[in-house]
Amino acid sequence: MPERFARARLRRGAVCAALALVLPLRALAQPMGLPSMGSAADAELPPALEQMLGDAIMEQGRRDPTYISDPDLDQYLTAMGRKLVAGAPGGGTHHITVFGVRDPQINAFTLPGGYIGVNSGLLVSAGNESELASVLAHEIGHVVQRHIARGMTQQSQNTGVIIASLVGALLAGLAGSGDLAVGVAAFGQAAAIDRQLGFSRQAEQEADRAGFEMLRKAGYDPRGMVQMFSMLMHASSLNEGKGGGAYTSTHPLSIQRMSDIQNRVSELPPVHHHDDPQFWYLRAKLRVLQAVSRQERDDALLQLRQETTQGSAVQRSAAWYGIAYGYWEAGSYAQAAEALGKSAQDPSVVPETAVLAARLANSQGQADEALRVARAGWQRWPHSQGVAVALVDVLRQARRDDEAIKFVEPCIRQWPKFAPLYRLRAQSQERLGQKVQARRSMAKYYELTGSLSTAVEQLRQARDLTTDFYVQSELDAQIRDLRQRLDTERHLLERFKKSN
């Protein structure tokens, strides 16, 4: 497992392309007069096209080992992002999705379509929840100010090459050629030429101020932004010339920016924000997850052991949880169970502990105990996507697929856009011989993850497997709708390509 992630870190794959993708967009975000795509109203990247670009990049990014596919983390980060964006002007109109990337560098980045990536190193380095929220608020500031959308319509020699490469790859992806990953990776390589450039000073200050207001309105401590800026500037100076300071290389900090935020904080009364316990548990898990070698994992466990004697009861409990997670991941189940027992001795319990307890019992062949723990966890946290997925996994591994499907149905009603549920339902349906339903479920999964051509293929297969006229009619209508969406996206891309 560690070797797999080491290779992934070297080649970076699609997520790396996404990381690199944001750099030229930021480099291009110094407006010098915006070109038109045919009318003054199109001076910025049209929202529909921007969303499509982000969806396509994320479709590839989710396949890379450095993408952290963790429901608990996704739900926590996206909830934080949406809480923050609610305080922005027109906050309800901005769609924000936050995800994690397995990378120890302190970094965060924004993609088209409101996608925001957070490196594991940023969360691990954050001293409290407000510090993490301050960086996320700054990134959301770039989204609401449409800095990327404006930057992508800049006309220059570099942008022409980059846009042509990206649009060509996306058009190939819409055709179902499978070339999208290669195209996006090539785009990421082209992006590296301007790695040293970031947003303009004005754009960075706009994002600071918008982020500061979001941070304040959401109830976080605005001092977290000052603390995080100080830490980032210190890390940048220590790593100068060593390839470090990733965040400051794309978000150049300055004394002027720091002073501006300090002055704003000084005008506010003190804020005493209470961190969500989940912050500490996810932080502990990511400390282990970002390790790609045995030595790094051992170092992470050593650091967590030191944290078991420091801080609040919640922080100590989270450290023991992180140790348990590390041992479980390494297959040392007895040690994992011992550490998890010490975590449970402290007063704070979060969904992550139930998920790990269920998975640990399953790994030890204790199917009944795994099911008991997962069901108890769901009874306590009926709004946790992580617990829901864990319970379905336990039911499926016990070959109780009928129960798994019955459980998934109300979960899908609660989270209709949570794609993993459709894939899990499809797996149980396939095992029960429900082949048409399984392909319809997989079609929905692919639709939600942005792979429309694959979704169409799944629906075609479902149609070929049934002779029911009414079912065939429903499938025909779904296929027609998806094809229309593909045609619309192709038209938008071709129009954008001609305008550049």
From TrEMBL:
Highest rank taxon of the organism: Bacteria
GO BP: proteolysis involved in protein catabolic process
Cofactor: Zn(2+)
Keyword Signal: yes
GO CC, alphabetical: membrane
Keyword Transcription belongs to the record: no
Region forming the signal peptide: 1-29
GO MF annotation list: metal ion binding; metalloendopeptidase activity
Keywords (A to Z) from UniProt: Hydrolase, Metal-binding, Metalloprotease, Protease, Signal, Zinc
Name used for this protein in its record: Peptidase
